[in-house]
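Practice record 12: protein with inosinic acid.
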Amino acid sequence: MESLIEKVLISEAEIHKRLDSMALEILTGFDGRPITVVAVLKGALVLVADLFRRLPVKLDIEFVTAQSYYGGTETTGQVEVIGGLPDVKGKSILLVDDILDTGLTLAALKAQLMDAGADSVATCVLLSKIKERSADVEADYCGFEIGDEFVVGYGLDYTGHYRNLPYIGILKEFGV
Ligand code: IMP
Ligand code: MG
């Protein structure tokens, strides 16, 4: 698997160091309020596991499954929430996704959580691509800004694979 990686963009150590400081930013932002983490599966799985252990406050965690990619490297523009939303009424939400690309996923989920009665929704991503977004959304907490290229690892996949790489990397070629 690793032989298919062209280069490591962000190392495991760099990710973990940044998570320490992101956690402090989040704790400051929530200012003692209990946090309901809503993680977007499957991509945010690794991030949320490492991040929420750095948040020593009253916290619960929920998951949503959103699908915006259908196996390729381009979004279809459609965001589908599978299996419904958790009960978020009156809660202060930290919505966690792996990456902000077109913004469609985060914008759609944030709107749906607010419609479902959340008190507030703060957004958090490990990566944000520097590009024009299709939806008007930015992350409140962002680990790293990267160029507009396709990355894998640390939860991010290409055709379902590479999520288990401990770093963020760029593939040598697609179609593998
Ligand atoms: P958006 O709705 O276009 O912002 O895309 C968000 C979702 O697309 C993320 O949750 C990822 O699952 C996926 N995605 C976007 N860019 C990449 C990438 O470079 N690698 C892997 N998945 C990506
Ligand atoms: Mg995703």
